[in-house]
Amino acid sequence: MFLFDTQPSTLNTQTMPLPADYHMHTPLCRHAAGEPAEYAARAVAVGLTEIGFSDHSPMRRDDFDDWRMRFDQLDEYVGKVRGAQAQFPQLTIRLALEVDFLPGQEGWIRELAARHPWDYFIGSVHYVSDSWAVDDPRKLSEWKSRDPWDVWSVYFERLTMAAETGLFEIIGHADLPKKFGCRPDRDCTPLYERFLNAAKTHDCAIELNTAGLRKDCKEIYPSRRILDLAFQTGVPITFGSDAHAPQEVGIHFAEAVQLAREVGYGESCRFTRRNREMVTF
User: Does domain 27-280 have CATH number 3.10.129.10?
Assistant: First the structure.
């Protein structure tokens, strides 16, 4: 979120089939550029056959923060995605949301789920408290007074809780706190394992999110270590560019696919009306 990237895609459509890009945004979130039809056109141009829009969902309070759509824009968002579907019939376009998980908001998430025939929900943790989103560059100074281990512990506790709710098909950018390069100097394996066991138990996928390659951490979300553990645990995957501008659609998918294959994955998830099937990539 927040930063726009303009580097060209590294996709090589001649040598590999392309998985769906299930993580992209719209201007309604107030920090993205380009209409859904422009994202769809870019997807066609780079050889994708399936994408999904998963913009930041509204909170119950519109003044909670300033980087998501308002509740009264939810139907507008759906209309924009439906318009892109009509304009690009050759491209499968899924309707979804990226939904922030905060403890106590489960009822609100269920209300959102009931409003439209969504294809999937990406559950993401940005907030480790009611006021601090760990990836917000405007609050980067918060890290100076925090022990990274404490931050990562709270983050993964909330990520585990999100998986345990059963409200999400996918968990987004599963090690987001590394965005600015702030990492604990302790072994985080127990945090990872608890989260991944919850994801497996509750039939939840994780995404390979290429936005990390465009951030200070210069690494796909999640790390190779987490992805290795995910494969060993039997947690399925999806792919997402986290595009906030049309030129970012499918960006760095070649690297993501290579990483997934090196770990042992050969299939990713496809979602239709919140039902999953596995497809080869």
Answer: no
